[in-house]
Amino acid sequence: QIFKQFVRHRTTDTSLILERSINKVQLLGRVGQDPVMRQVEGRNPVTIFSMATNEMWRSGEGEPTTTGDVTQKTTWHRISVFKPGLRDVAYQYVKKGSRILVEGKLDYGEYMDKNNVRRQATTIIADNIVFLSENLRDQ
């Protein structure tokens, strides 16, 4: 099937060979803050919120024992929602503490902070958000 897609996108110009690539992210975690909607002049609005994912492991991993201290690492992610329908749903229904699944792609960019220092930012551009059933019980 991949070969068929390659052949379908083949061109006679050798400098313009199109090839498929994948930039896909899935995050399952908890929302860190209520979403905000921002609009930069001349652009469509965007809904932004943070999300935490956790990793847990036991010290002495690789040893045939279940004893040892459990260590947890929390990673924070910046989620941006540009799709008009999804952007509005996220703004209205995503709440701090909600457990959600976000599907999207990684985006790397730069911005100038308030001190005019160039900073790098990694953002997840959401294509889909799944609200887990435990959130529905709370409402």
TrEMBL record:
Entry keywords, A to Z:
DNA replication, DNA-binding, Mitochondrion, Mitochondrion nucleoid, Transit peptide
Which GO terms fall under molecular function for this chain's record?
A: single-stranded DNA binding
**Organism domain of life:** Eukaryota
Sorted alphabetically, which SUPFAM superfamilies does this protein's record hold?
A: Nucleic acid-binding proteins
Q: Which Pfam families match?
A: SSB (PF00436)
Protein's GO biological process: mitochondrial DNA replication
Q: Say yes or no: keyword Mitochondrion present.
A: yes
Location of the protein in the cell: Mitochondrion matrix, Mitochondrion nucleoid
Record's GO cellular component terms: mitochondrial nucleoid
Name of the featured protein: Single-stranded DNA-binding protein, mitochondrial
